[in-house]
């Protein structure tokens, strides 16, 4: 399970960390093996790193796998900037394959190098790189997996072992020097990128994509739209013509639909955990390519459609899909204010339920309070990446809602020799659960963290 963007909003201080929410935290672990494992309250105090990169509890250690600006092992060019969403895949002989997003805009310092057969738009600086690691987390290879895309933020893995990388933009050709339209999803193979190439999955829509989750029973793909200002985003589902068809099957197209909650034009107005709505409707998106009108502004009939501000994280758990609205602000145009919501949609019952509401003590604008990516920890609980001001952390959250610091990044010195240390992102675990992989967004750095995870 993985998802992104402020799904657990926690507060850190010199004395510890805390969390404020109402609802059922156990919902986040639905249908997962880790839900039955231990869930302690942490691994002890963080020990300052003599090298000044990553503070960890006693017994843990890190290895730097890759740094922005260094040369890719493939010789294709420098390691690109802005490390973001990431997934780990099992390889032969205990090897691990990582696929890593690069959320590069046109201003990125190091673009994803263009490679023949793997480049969508030569003017796009984003994309993905792929690393292969041995059993000791030594880098065996590092190469371009897709190039020429833009603002590759999050995505999600498929049941057949590929990564869907999402463009969080809807820039058209001619904007920012782009030669092609952007705002698509692309499939990336972790070991043989040329099998998937750089083919936009156009039927899945052109909008500000954030994350996806796939129903492993029938192949339905759920998609979030991260729209910060009005008009706010929609929650979509894509019904492929070749469900669960394997690598490349999503190119066969399908039907893109948007969720309508009858009588609820804006999800921010719902504030009570446990509130649910039956008879959820799915309405065909008139023009998935958004040729003249963004998908969230198109005509969905007299009943309209349901919007929400900052729809980001999306993941599958048990028999339901979960998605996140990071926050809503009336000052931005939302119908009401909140500090984070997690929703559950049950396809079999056509029921939408508000599971968790965060805040108000977790205002995302306060320093140190904007966690980003999230994943399950092998010993139970969650790991979340902070995306705020000041020192950056990877937090652990137990099923009881207890929060502890697992890692702390270098302080933001901001000198020429020590550039400002950005947020953590892309947290994920090796298939055997023995290593946590995590990115520093800027300067782009990928870490492998080992230690007594099941302690």
UniProtKB/TrEMBL annotation:
Classification via SUPFAM superfamilies: Calcium-dependent phosphotriesterase
Protein origin, superkingdom: Bacteria
InterPro entries, per the entry: PhoX, TAT_signal
Protein name, UniProt field: Secreted protein
Species of origin: Streptomyces lucensis JCM 4490
């Amino acid at each position: 399970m993985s998802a992104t963007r402020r799904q657990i909003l926690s507060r850190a201080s010199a004395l510890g960390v805390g969390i404020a929410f109402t609802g059922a935290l156990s919902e986040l672990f639905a249908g997962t093996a880790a839900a039955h494992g231990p869930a302690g309250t942490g691994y002890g105090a963080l020990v300052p790193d003599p090298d000044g990169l990553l503070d960890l509890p006693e017994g843990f250690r890190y290895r730097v796998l890759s740094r922005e600006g260094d040369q890719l092992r493939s010789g294709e060019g420098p390691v690109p900037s802005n490390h973001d969403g990431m997934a780990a895949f099992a390889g032969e002989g205990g090897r691990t394959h990582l696929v890593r997003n690069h959320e590069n805009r046109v201003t990125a310092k190091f673009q994803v190098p263009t490679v023949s057969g793997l480049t969508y738009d030569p003017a796009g600086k984003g994309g993905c790189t792929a690393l292969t690691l041995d059993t000791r987390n030594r880098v065996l290879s590092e190469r371009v997996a897709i190039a020429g895309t833009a603002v590759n933020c999050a995505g999600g893995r498929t049941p057949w072992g590929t990564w869907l990388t999402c463009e969080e933009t809807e820039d058209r050709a001619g904007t920012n020097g782009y030669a092609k339209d952007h705002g698509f999803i692309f499939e990336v193979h972790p070991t043989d990128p040329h099998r998937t190439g750089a083919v936009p999955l156009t039927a899945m829509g052109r909008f500000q994509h954030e994350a996806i989750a796939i129903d492993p029973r029938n192949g339905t793909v759920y998609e979030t739209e991260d729209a910060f200002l009005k008009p706010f985003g929609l929650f979509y589902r894509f019904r492929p013509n070749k469900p669960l068809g394997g690598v490349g099957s999503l190119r066969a197209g399908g039907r893109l639909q948007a969720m309508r909650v009858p009588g609820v034009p804006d999800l921010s107005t719902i504030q009570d955990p446990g509130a649910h709505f039956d008879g959820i409707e799915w309405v065909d998106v008139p023009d998935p390519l958004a040729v003249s009108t963004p998908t969230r502004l198109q005509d969905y009939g007299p009943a309209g459609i349901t919007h929400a501000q900052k729809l980001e994280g999306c993941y599958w758990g048990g028999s339901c899909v979960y998605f996140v609205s990071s926050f809503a602000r009336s000052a931005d145009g939302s119908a009401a204010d909140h500090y984070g919501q997690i929703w559950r949609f049950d396809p079999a019952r056509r029921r939408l339920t508000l599971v968790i509401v965060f805040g108000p003590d977790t205002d995302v604008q306060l320093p140190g309070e904007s966690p980003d990516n999230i994943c399950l920890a092998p010993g139970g609980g969650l790991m979340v990446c902070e995306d705020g001001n000041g020192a950056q952390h990877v937090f652990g959250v137990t099923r009881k809602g207890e929060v502890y610091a697992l890692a702390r990044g270098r302080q933001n010195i901001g000198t020429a020799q020590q550039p400002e240390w950005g947020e953590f992102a892309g947290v994920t675990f090796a298939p055997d659960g023995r290593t946590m992989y995590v990115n520093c967004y800027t300067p782009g750095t990928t870490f492998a963290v080992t230690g007594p995870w099941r302690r």
